[in-house]
Specification:
Blueprint (H helix, E strand, L loop, with lengths): L1 H46 L2 E4 L5 E4 L6 E3 L2 H9 L6 E3 L24 H6 L4 E4 L5 H8 L5 E3 L6 H15 L2 H17 L12 E4 L8 E2 L6 H8 L3 E2 L8 E2 L1 H7 L3 E5 L3 H5 L8 H4 L3 E4 L1 H4 L5 H16 L1
């Protein structure tokens, strides 16, 4: 009798244990299935660090934050420094001369005649270009499985803000980019000019080139035209269809102010027939750092500030 009871009890216990084990196993399988599914989804998301349609309409995908960058644009190089990411630059062009710390960075050549082989040997995670790099060179770089991102130089000040924003995301420096953009916008806001009426503004001539090679200035639709206009002037080249102009046109306009690279001031103001221009005669020549105005970069705001201040000072 006792044996039978023990046997029945044993069977019941065994059945309970089996049911308990089945339930535990089922719960464990469900947990593992859910956990694995969640992990897979997270991994797929984690692989994509940055996505963007670049200036040439190409879909760019970076799986991780780049640690080694080659910049083929002076403006881009300058902005990388501004965002405190210069330690990521492993290669730049011969034209990337600002800030002075660029001297320690490896040069790959010009913006169009750079060495693709040298560039590739630097093992960059990404190459960032502006508007000048040739399509065939881009294709050669991409053939080596190196992503190329085009951030085209725009002719408006807003384009500088846009470039800083994109670079901030690429470099993981979004906060820095936002702060720098705000600083630049504040500087521009302090330049008190009414751009609605250009007829009453002083006329400005930016000397792009002069003398025997011909006379050149910036036409409308260029970033230099934008700088001159935002500084409170009327660009004499606004109506030109190209950068070249006749000397007769220059003397007919006889600009109120001449803006010129500081290294050219002495020679220009002592060279006939430019000595006959009213701005030269009356000392209304504004020297400027070439890097502030010739290259699309945040220093264009410095140029705008400087020209605006000089116009007010020389009145």
């Amino acid at each position: 009798m006792f044996f039978l009871i023990d046997e029945l009890t044993s069977r019941r216990v065994n059945n309970l244990l089996i049911r308990l084990l089945v339930n535990i196993s089922t719960c464990l399988l469900v947990y593992l299935f859910c956990a694995c599914g969640h992990k897979t989804e997270y991994s797929q998301t984690e692989k994509i660090y940055f996505t963007w349609t670049d200036s040439y309409g190409r879909e760019i995908v970076l799986e991780k934050q780049p640690e080694r960058i080659v910049s083929l644009s002076p403006g881009i190089t300058e902005m990388v420094f501004l965002l405190e990411s210069e330690d990521k630059l492993v290669g730049i062009t011969d034209f990337c001369k600002y800030p002075p710390e660029t001297e320690r960075i490896t040069r790959v050549g010009g913006m169009q005649n750079f060495s693709v082989e040298h560039l590739v040997s630097l093992a960059p995670d990404v190459v960032i270009i502006g508007s000048i790099v040739r399509k065939e060179d881009v294709e050669k770089i991409e053939a080596m499985n190196i992503p190329v991102i085009a951030i085209k130089e725009e002719e408006k000040i807003e384009g500088i803000y846009h470039a800083l924003d994109v670079l901030g995301r690429i470099l993981g420096k979004e906060k820095n980019a936002t702060e720098e953009i705000e600083v630049l916008k504040e500087k521009m806001a302090k330049i008190n000019t009414d751009i609605s009426d250009t007829s009453s503004r002083p006329s400005l001539y930016y000397v792009v080139g002069y003398n025997d090679a011909g006379d050149f200035t910036a036409p409308a639709g260029t970033h230099i035209h934008e700088i001159l206009t935002l500084a409170g002037g009327r660009n004499i080249g606004a109506g030109l269809k190209s950068w070249g102009m006749s000397r007769e046109f220059l003397f007919q306009e006889d600009p109120d102010y001449i803006v010129i690279r500081k290294e050219d001031v002495e020679h220009f103001t002592k060279t006939y027939p430019y000595t006959g221009l009213s701005a030269v005669i009356h000392g209304r020549v504004i020297p400027i750092e070439s890097g502030w105005i010739d290259i699309v970069s945040p220093r264009n705001i410095w140029a705008t500030e400087h020209i605006n201040a000089e116009i007010k000072r020389k009145k």
